[in-house]
């Protein structure tokens, strides 16, 4: 089977260029104007889609100072979950303006809902696809609700074992999802390169017969490029106008020039994959002349024996191929052969 997904008229599949998703997340820093500017900057990078996150703090957690609700270690050390989500969330009443701006710029936009209300809001806005975040991949009721929208779904697999992924995929498919993408993901912020385990990507595609990709939280673009080489056809990466401006995700987000490079490099990687071929490429045909071949390197008189002294394998490649050397040595010249003459069988007795 050759799985394919269609999002907003763009085909995504093993034989298609990578689909690049620009994740705005919480880097709007609480400003709608900044969020709109991010939409414009993202559109200019050449990404295929812009993605939001649709939640309120209360849809994710409760306001509590108990140890269970406080983050220990990492980028957000010491913060409560509620405080972090209060800072990072994209207010529901911004969504229509953000969707309109992206559509005005000709870029697909969709989002990650974190509860049924968010999914229904996105449906009302005409979202062409839905993303399920890694941390929600175990929320089967949410997956079922989103699947019933009848749109393509993208599910991140960070923190999920094979059993978790199998349950999520089965739930999506059992509830009507016919177009599904699975994203390999390491849910660490940032994620270390040496724990990325990109060899999981082709296994994920084989195990679940889906389009696969990478939700990339590493620094830079190298891991995304490597993922495309291994079969990823969707790349999701966080975006910011400038890391120096701060924001909950800014430390591992790409700035506009970097994101443009991500788009260029991943697409170049896909193009370079090509096909299995041992034929001479069109670009190298002219250089066939510079391969080695057999030449006279001294004047050879009629009847004179061809030896390793008066013939050699040298560049260019207009003479007999070097593998004929043993058949040429010891033969005699049929006619005079001037130094610098490409050898051919007609010259030999």
Automatic annotation (TrEMBL):
<dbReference type="Pfam" id="PF08666">
    <property type="entry name" value="SAF"/>
</dbReference>
<dbReference type="GO" id="GO:0016051">
    <property type="term" value="P:carbohydrate biosynthetic process"/>
</dbReference>
<dbReference type="InterPro" id="IPR013974">
    <property type="entry name" value="SAF"/>
</dbReference>
<dbReference type="Pfam" id="PF03102">
    <property type="entry name" value="NeuB"/>
</dbReference>
<dbReference type="InterPro" id="IPR020030">
    <property type="entry name" value="Pseudaminic_synth_PseI"/>
</dbReference>
<dbReference type="InterPro" id="IPR013132">
    <property type="entry name" value="PseI/NeuA/B-like_N"/>
</dbReference>
<dbReference type="InterPro" id="IPR013785">
    <property type="entry name" value="Aldolase_TIM"/>
</dbReference>
<dbReference type="GO" id="GO:0047444">
    <property type="term" value="F:N-acylneuraminate-9-phosphate synthase activity"/>
</dbReference>
<feature type="domain" description="AFP-like">
    <location>
        <begin position="293"/>
        <end position="349"/>
    </location>
</feature>
<dbReference type="InterPro" id="IPR036732">
    <property type="entry name" value="AFP_Neu5c_C_sf"/>
</dbReference>
<protein>
    <submittedName>
        <fullName>N-acetylneuraminate synthase</fullName>
    </submittedName>
</protein>
<dbReference type="InterPro" id="IPR057736">
    <property type="entry name" value="SAF_PseI/NeuA/NeuB"/>
</dbReference>
<dbReference type="InterPro" id="IPR006190">
    <property type="entry name" value="SAF_AFP_Neu5Ac"/>
</dbReference>
<dbReference type="InterPro" id="IPR051690">
    <property type="entry name" value="PseI-like"/>
</dbReference>
